[in-house]
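Table S2 (text version). Query chain:
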Amino acid sequence: MSEVKNMNASTPEVSEETIDAVMKKYDRESNTRIWEGKAKIVVAMILVAFSLWCIWVTLFATFLEEIRLTSFMGLIILMGFLIYPAKKGEQRPNHIPWYDLIFMVLGTGSYLYFTFQANTIINQGTRFSWFQIIIGIIAIAALIEVTRRCVGIPILIVAAFFVIYALAYGLTNPEFTGRLRYLVRNLFYTKEGIFSTPVNVCSKYIVVFIIFGAFLEKTGISDFFIRLANSIAGRYAGGPAKVAVISSALCGMVSGSSVGNTVTTGSVTIPMMKDTGYKAEFAGAVEAASSTGGQIMPPIMGAAAFLMADFVGVPYSSIIGRAILPALLYFLGIFVSVHLEAKKLGLTGIPKDSLPNFWNLMKKVYLLLPLVMLVVWVSGNFMTMQRAAAFAILLSIGVSLFDAQNRITPKKILLALEQGGKSAITVGAACGVAGIISGAITMTGLANDLIHAIVGVAGNHLIIALLLTMLCCIVLGMGVPTTANYCIMAATTAPILVRMGVPTMAAHFFVFYFGIVADITPPVALAAYAGSAIAKSNPMRTAFNASKLAIAAFIVPYMFCYNPAMLLIDTTPLSVALIVVTSILGVFALAAALEGYCFTHMHPLVRVWMAVSGLMLIHPAVLTDLAGFILLMGGLLYLYTHAKRNAKHAAL
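Corresponding structure-token output:
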């Protein structure tokens, strides 16, 4: 990455201390214990062993599913207490308090008790002793505590609400102890709670893909993406911002963390944008919006894509195929906005002689081979997802051998396995709590009550149901990992849209998108706040700018609910081609309206004109497309002639 940082000598580098401080403030995963010497080696080996175990289990294990799920969560609890302290700021090396040790042993032991007694527990029916109920309570408490440490409070507030509702009102047993026994049994000893779909998919698919992402990082692919983006877009007006959009889309696709990608990629791109002339709030917003959008970028799309495939009951390849057009529209909207902002401010690009040579970079295009083959193997049904990910890991090691600078050594292999194991803790814990939430909702019948309530309020008006669902997703998604947020919304609000007549695929994409944009939506826009910390800008202004840049993510989901052809559902190639062209024009018109500039500064009425034309073009219908196209052409003609007239007057 040094080559990237040196492309503009006047751009001040963001120090490692600043990056670490921002990560620890906005990304709970970065607040870890300090292990040194032999203790560090032991902890690292535990993480490495966990990653290897996950790969082996997903490929070769034939034992009971209950054994796989309980042992997986037991190891998540063990590693969670080893890695994450009880509170921020604990900096004593090689120190773990006695109460953490006790909680770790009891929590891990509770899950392993289920692992080794799985056959007995499965065959004993509904009769559970108080000893077993207490073990279940300890297991649930340990999961909640690990989640608090590595994920945060918001998701636990949601879980607490549903659990308290279940104990106080939702369950019918007249005695509190009876309700407690029923709740614990269902949440811990069945597949309706902790060990439901989220944890099942996480242990089977997601972890292997997380490990694959860690190996990709070791091949230097992030540095390759940034240099590739610079060689493609760096020389044009506002080049650094365009570099941020392209590189963050590619890097975020692999990393799966909007906050983490905002800080790491933004440490390079944000200072470059500011040095070019962009305002600090705009620079931080561009990076935050682009990094957040990386989670909707095929083929990786963050962890939630695998869950969606399982929830909807379609192949993963079908998910990534349908996600292409919405993702392109999202990033096109940001790209157009940064271009028009650069034109409005009269900004230039990076000098050509300071940029990497595109054809020299193409010599390393083999670094993309693992990603390409992963898509081929999965979409062509040549092998299962987990097997494809495992082979992609081996392929990433193989392609690195051709790059002397980033060649994967045995040490790097261990580091990748260690990083993969560490990253799995947060996702595993979040999926476990999401299982608690969905379990509590299911056993109380609250999901049906919520569906009836919202359908009753909405009546026959789909737009009302969509608005209420969007608000639920954004509120629940604030500070909650995308994976857990999607699990919650898939169990609660997606069925509402299905009941309203929205196709299942479109309903799940709708909640998926709005769960993601919560990271840049005020008031709890963690990715935007992280970007503002790097840019040294006002956090709230940065968040509002990021939301404006990501306008496509707030509009496109409504469009594919009204016309699923945008997701390639029940359509023809000609219709798809028409949708692509009109949607691109629509996103351009919307971006221009929000920027207030195209050829020249826009009058407020012209901005409204352009916004209306954009919305009509994005809506996939022939009449609205035709009307929107006429409005757009008229608006562009007016702006062009107005700009020419102003230039002529200025020359006089």
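Notes on Table S2: The first helix runs from residue 2 to 5. The two ends are 49 Å apart (CA to CA).
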